[in-house]
Amino acid sequence: MIVNELSHIFSLSDIYFHQVQRQLKNTNFFKIEWQAEDPEKQLTNIHDCTQVKFLINNSDEKTTDSKMANVSNKPKIVLFNNVTWKVLFDFMQFCHANVISLDLCKLVKPTDSLDGAISFNLNAAVNNQTKLLLNEWAETQNIELCYLEDAPTLSQTGLLVMDMDSTAIEIECIDEIAKLAGVGEQVSEVTAAAMRGELDFAESLHARVATLTNAPVSIIDQVADNLPLMPGLENLVTQLQSFGWKLVIASGGFTYMTDVLKRQLNLDATVANQLEMKDGKLTGKVLGRIVDANVKAETVVSLAKEYNIEPSQTIAMGDGANDLVMMAAAQLGVAFHAKPLVRKQADVSVKKGGLDQLLYLL
Fold this sequence. Notes:
By secondary structure, the protein is an alpha/beta fold. Helices cover 35% and strands 24% of the residues. It folds into 2 domains: 3-148, no CATH class; 159-361, 3-Layer(aba) Sandwich (Rossmann fold). The strands form 3 sheets. It has a 7-stranded mixed sheet with strand order 11-10-9-8-12-13-14, sandwiched between helices. A 4-stranded antiparallel sheet has the order 5-6-4-7, with helices on one face. Helix 5 (173-181) packs across helix 8.
């Protein structure tokens, strides 16, 4: 793709990277050139650089639309959270050293509330070993890095299926219920083991719910009335709904809580477990089929068909081992604030920040 000689040039000492993201958020794809005070000097360190030049794509070109689509369909690497000039320079040096062929890139700032990300298109896909090296590099830099091939896009309707506990909301509901019932420590230990994949989810759920036998239903109301939404959830929901996406929660938690979220966020559907109650008390039992890993995965597949959404436009997001099957069933599996086992197996991982950062990837 041709780029203009007209460009944006920034002094590294005068402007921060996030300020550039705000200024250039509406530009097309561009190339980056690092510049030293001495043009003959070989650049091996960010401290050798005094300026950076952004060579902007020529949007007046007659074939721009088709070429832009071509670029958008390429594999890409998205960087966000704490990206600085040094991180950006080191990333490009790292890619050169590991024969990762970078093409044009783009600044991504979906909403004003998000800091922004930078997305690099690649000329070719990378192998699993290179993906591992990229993730290890990102860990050392304390930034988020997501490698994507054939990711869903906002240009078509899609389906997002989210876990609830520690994903859509900041708590594990059963742990909070257990605290109010006086069995908090006992239940939280089982929850943690289940999320790490050390216990069968259905068995662990039955064991935890059994400890709540004869607890008053009022403690369920107390938790349901005070659900702390994960930062970025409302922004993510609003943005995806504006593009016609379907939004669903599939949870190993309880319908009492998912029903609250469905009403509050105007979600399309929720799937969760139903607690049995009699005479104003919990019986310690769960009614019907347990919503486990397989049921969550079935939810992705069945609702995509029901809503007439292409499988390539599906995303599943969660934090625990019981979300991995659901992630595998979707086109894009996103580990969010997840355990190490889940981050390793998911397509991409977001370790910190809000849920709306998912928009960077679309």
